[in-house]
Structures are given as structure tokens and as C-alpha cells.
Amino acid sequence: MTQFTHIGLGHFLALSAILFALGMGGVLTRRNALSVFMSIELMLNSANLAFASFARYTFTMSGHVFVFMAMVVAACEVAVGLAILLSIYRSRATLSLDELDLLKW
Amino acid sequence: MGHETAIEIVNQGQAAAYIALIPLLPFLGFLANGMGWIILRDKWPRMLVNVIAVSVVFISFALSVMAFLDLKALEEGAYLFVEPFKWIEAGGVDAPIKLVFDRLSAVMCLVVTGVGGLIHLYSTGYMSHDKSFARYFAYLNLFTFAMMLLVMGGNIVIMFVGWEGVGLCSYLLIGFWYEDPEKASAGKKAFVVNRIGDFGFLVGIFTIFWLMGTMDFAAMRDWVIAHPEVMSGKTLLGVSVATIIGIALFVGATGKSAQIPLYVWLPDAMAGPTPVSALIHAATMVTAGVYMIGRLNFIYAYSPAALMVVAGVGVVTALFSATIGFTQTDIKKVLAYSTVSQLGYMFTAMGVAAYAAGIFHLTTHAFFKALLFLGSGSVIHGLSGEQDMTKMGGLSKLMKITCWSMFAGYFAIAGFPGLAGFVSKDEILWKAYSNSVHPAQFNQIVYLIGLVAAVCTAIYMTRLMMLTFFTPSRMDPEVEHHVHESPWTMTVPLIALAILSAVGGIFNWPHALGGGASFEHWLHPMWMEVNTTHEAHGHASHAMEYVLMGLSVGLAVGAMASVAFLYYKYREKTAVIAERLGVLYRASLNKYWVDEIYETLVINPIKSISYYFLFRLFDANVIDGAVNGLAGLTKGLGHAGGRMHTGKVQTYALYIAIGLLVILTFYLGTR
Predict the structure, then answer these.
(1) Which residues between 16 and 75 in chain A have a beta carbon less than 8 angstroms from any beta carbon of chain B?
(2) I want to staple B174 with a disulfide (CB 3.0 to 4.6 A). Which of B59, B272, B568, B624 is the partner?
(3) Contact status, residue B383 vs residue B131, Cβ threshold 8 Å
(4) Whole-structure pTM over 0.90, yes or no?
(5) Long-range pairs of B634-640 with CB within 8 A, sequence gap ≥ 24
(6) Cα–Cα distance measured from residue B128 to residue B92, given in angstroms and rounded to the nearest whole number
């Protein structure tokens, strides 16, 4: 029964994997650009969780540093990404990814 | 019998940088006038064009004289050379830019720059009304440059560069008035026919390189001296290598020097300006083949068979084209066939190993044929472009200088005793008769044909002179009104060449007439004796020489007198004579239908094969098919691949996800 009472690295990684899968499912299936965007954030955070778990597990700091790094980049990305979405919405009056398909052959 | 004397040849080169200027100066003239024409067109001043174009050639002549004097101070067999830089150095091939000024190139340099300079001067008058003045002189200077490369090249590659260069200039200058399609196509014909000959020349070069492993003339000569048994012993397809090389090179010479069967371009080349006909198509370029055989005489020395071909083709060409000259009415065409005929004489001389006689005839021919062409140019200029002799006549009073200077050329070419042409032509006929290179029967036939051709020469030249200058005028009154003697720039070269044609014989006055034959002695170190088995003629004595000389002189002078009398007294009878001769007359008038025969036998089949097989079948299907097929395949693949680019960001994300899965599966699966 110890495997249920003790929460180890495997649990964290499993959670991280589940979050990642959820995020990827969202990216692939949602039609609204904002939802896709949020799903990407979810995937990023699943990675962060994995980093933090490994850092705690190995008693090193580099994983934490990566997490901070990822958070900073994510913050920047949010700022730029939302701005892009906003200007797309202004010009196209939609955020449906099915209609944003100019970049093709 | 020849080897012992041949081995004594000394090869002593002496560096002399200034001889590089001899070809370089005309090249600079070409650059200056060519650039001036391209950039400034008509604003490039004519006076400057004249000064540059003429002076560079005369300075080259002065330098040639200087080099000649330097060379004269050296001992026999020595030569001046300059090797400015390496050029082709690849594997066994070593062809540096090397210019050589030996006794043979000295003669050629003096002739080309001397006669060339006079013709440049003449051109300033003749072309004064032309709008592409600078272009003309740029080409003419480029020609001089190429010709100097040809005669001064120290290896056969440089010679070939010059060989092709003069061909290019010939093409450019024949088609100089390219607005006229007929003239443009005459240029093209000259180029194509020359290319056929050049193929033979290239085969010769390759065979030489394959055999001897060198391109350098001096090294080739040394090789030949060191390996006489290979030259006559080694065979390809049952023919000795010397014969193969000799005949392949001679094929090149038949193209460049207008011999049977490739002479057909030269008469058409008269479409170019007349000074060009004088310089390129009479005095210098067309003699390149003769020079080449002289330069490579050490190869011909091992192949009497190749020499026999050369002599045979030469003498037949001499007679054949002389008979065409009888009936042509275009003054330049008569001179063109005359040139072909005289070139035939030169080859006859080369073919009987009388190299000095051939080169000397080349020199005197340069004098008198340039003179005759320039004289005819002066007539054409004075008659506002009329070239038909049936519309001339009576010009002796209107163009005195032209008429009397041309007389010197006429007497020279007809073989009148004492003049340059007499000395050189008689030497050839004598050597053709008395040489020990070929069997006696062959020599007698060659001599007879040559003698008949000499008589023909006297006949057609007399006809030309009579029709142009002495018979009553048949000119258009309009044209006659404008007839004028040419300006000094044109008459001075005429007079200079007339003097040379008259007294040029003294350079090689034969022993039989008490002369020193100095030209022959000057060139003697250049030649190698022919390796032959025939005994010299027992009766090749001075007495025999006098008899033959008297025979040819008597026949020539007799022909001149009788034809002159005929045209003077009974000109209306000439039409009756033509009538009587019937098919012979028509054959000569139509140039034996050679052009038509070539058209049917060669040109049309080639055109048909090119069009139906190469173009319609092969090019359109195979080559276009391959190219278009490849293009179509690429395009199709691109289209198929393009379908994956939907533009939807989620499709791309899906591809990434699938890729990730594949990689992971692979990675985890192989662990």
C-alpha cells in the first residue's frame, strides 16, 4: 500500500504528462485561437512541473532555474501573442483558426 | 639521305623582349579604336582612328626591320624569342605564350606588316565615306595582331590561336556591310568552310601531341630528328604517322588557303571591302597554309606521299581556278580566282619541297596581288562602286596612276621577264620539274599543268587589263562623269607596291641568271631535306633551266600579246569565240557548277538530316522530352507536396505531434 501513501517522482511526472496531453489535445482540437493559446500555456506548465520535480528529486537547482526561465519567456510570449491575436481580431474580426489560413501554397 | 645534314641544325634562342611589341601594338590599336567605336560611335574622331590604326602597323614594321637586322647579326639557325608568361600548363601539356622570330617568321613579319601597313594607309582613303570607319580599322588591326601571332607563335597552340583569329577577322570583314544579307552570308560561308578545314588541322595537332608529347616547334623538330624511324616506320591504319599528320594539317591548309576542295569561300569573300580582299584574301591570311607547311617542313620531310598530295592538289587548283578566271566579268572575282590559282602555285612549290620558292612566291604574290586588288579598288572607288568589267573601259586616260601601277602588277603576275612574279613562278616551275622528291613522271605532269596554268594566268590578266583600261569606254555616262583619280593615301601604296612588284625579284635572283638567290640562302637553315629514294634528274642542268625558262616566258608573253591584240582589234570576236567554245565556256562561266554540286551533295543532305533527324526527331523528342519530363516531374511532386500546406496552424501542429510520436516510438522501441 505504500505506493498510494507515498507521493513520489512518478506521480509528479504522471501529472505532468497528463497536463501535457491535455494541452496538446487542446492545441490540436480547439478552433478558437485564444483557447489554443491557453492550451499552449498548459503544456508549458506541464514542462515546468517536470523540471521542478526533477530538481526536487535530485536536489539540484538547475531545474528551478529552468522553470523561472520558462516563466519569463512565457510571460513575454503572452504579451506578444495576445497583441498579435488582438490585431488579427481587429483586421479579420474573427479568431477562428479555420479561417486564418493565409499561409499556404 | 637527309638525316646527316639535318642533325647539324643548331637551336640557339636569344631572348629579345621587344619582339613582343610586334603583335602587341596592333592589338592596342584594336583596343583603342574598338573602345572608341563602342563608347563614342561617330564622335570618335576619324583623324585619330587613322593615326592610331596606320601608325601601329608601321611601328610594328619598323620593329620587324629592327628584329630582322638583329637576327641577321646572329649565326645561322639562331633565333630571337620572348616568353612573357606561362599559359596552358596541365598534365603533359605545356603551351606557354612564346613568340619566336626566326628566319621564316622574319620574312612573314616583314611581308605582313609592310604590305599590311600600306593597305591600312590605302584604307584610310578607300573607307573615308563609310559610317563604321572605326569599326573597320579595329577589325583590321585585330587581324594584323592575329596574323602576327600565327607567324610568330613558338608552339602550334599559339599558331592555332592566330589561325582561328585571322579566320574570325576574315569573317567579320567579309560581312563588314552586314546590312546586305548576301554579304553577311558570304562571311558565314567563309567561316563554315574554314571550320571544316580547321577540323583537319586539329586532328593534325592532336596526332602530333599524341606522338611527340610536345607542342613546341623547336622541341617537335628535335623529336623528329631523334626519332626518324618512328616518323616513317610507325603506322596508323596502314599509313605512316608522318603522312597522317601531313595530310591532316594540309586539310586545314586547304580551308584557310582556299585549295580544292575547300576553295569555294574565297571568291565569295570578295563581298568585303576591297582593301580587305587585298590584305586578308590575297596577301596574308590565305597564305597561312603555305607558311604552316613551311614551318612544319620537318614533318613533311618524312612523308613524300603527303608532299605529293600537296603538290598535286596545288597544281590542279592552280589550273582549275585559272580557267574560271577566263570568263568572270566581276573584276574582283577574276582576281579572287587568280589568288586561288597563285596559292596553288605556292602549294605546288611546298609539295616538291622547294619551300623557299613557295615562300618567295608568297612574298612576291603579296606585292603584286595586293597591288592588283588595291588597283581594282581604286577603279571601283573611282567608278562609284561599279565592279563589272563589261561596264568599264578606257580608264587608262582617266586614272593614270592606277593604270600604270597596276601594269607593274599585271606584268609581274603574268610572268613577264625580270619582274618579281617571273622570278618566283619560274623558280617554282623549275623546281617542280627538277626536284628529286617525287618520281620523274609525276614531276613532268606537275610541270606541264603548272606551265598551262601560267599561260592561263597571262590570258585572264590581259583580258582584265584590256577590258578595264584600254577598250573603248562602256561606262554609264553618269558614272563616267564622276570618274576621278584616287587621293594620295590610295595612290602612294599603289606606287610603293608597283615598285616592289617590279623589282622584288632581285631578292631571289636565280643563280642561272647570274644572281645570288639570297632569299633561298636566307631561309635554307629552316628546311630539312626530304627522306626520299628518287635519284635527282640527270639533265637538271642550267641548260635545261634556260630552255624551260625560255619556254614559259615565250608562252606567257605570246599569250599576253595575242590576247591584247584580240581585245584591241577584234573585241567583237570574243563573243563569237565564247559561242564556239559552247559548253566549255558555260562551265567556266558557271565555275564548273561546283557551288551547285556542293549544294546538292553536301549542304542539302546536311540540312535535311539536321532538320528532320536532329531537330524534329532527336531534339524535339529526346532532348526536349528529357528536359520537359524532368521539369514536369518536379512540378508534379511540388504540387503533391503543396497539398500538405493547408495554411491551418493546427494541421502543422498535428504534423509535429505525429512526428514526435514517431520519434518517441522509435526511440523507446529500440531501447
Answers:
(1) 24, 27-29, 36
(2) B272
(3) no
(4) no
(5) none
(6) 51
The residue of B649, B651, B661 whose CB has the most chain A CBs within 10 angstroms, and thus the best one to mutate to test that interface, is: B649
> Grid coordinates standing for B657?
505531434
Q: Residue B404 is which amino acid? A: W
Average confidence (pLDDT) over B641-668: 89
Helix, strand or coil for residue B432?
A: helix
State the smallest CA–CA distance between residue B626 and chain A in angstroms: 27
Min distance A4 CA to chain B CA atoms (Å): 27
b/e per residue B148-160 (b: at least 16 CB within 10 A): bbbbbbbbbbbbb
Shortest CA distance to B276 belongs to which of B123, B128, B131? B123
* ipTM here: 0.84
For residues B273-299, average pLDDT: 93
C-alpha cell of B333?
572575282
**DSSP-based helix, strand, coil % in chain A, nearest 5:** 80, 0, 20
Say whether B299 sits in a helix, a strand or coil: helix
| Grid cell locating A57 | 528529486
User: What are A96's strand-pairing partners?
Assistant: A32
Nearest to A98 among B648, B653, B657 (CB): B648
| Residues of chain A neighbouring B653 (CB-CB closer than 8 A) | 27-28
Q: Are A101 and B647 a contacting pair at CB < 8 A? A: yes
Q: Which residue of A has its CA nearest to B651?
A: A28
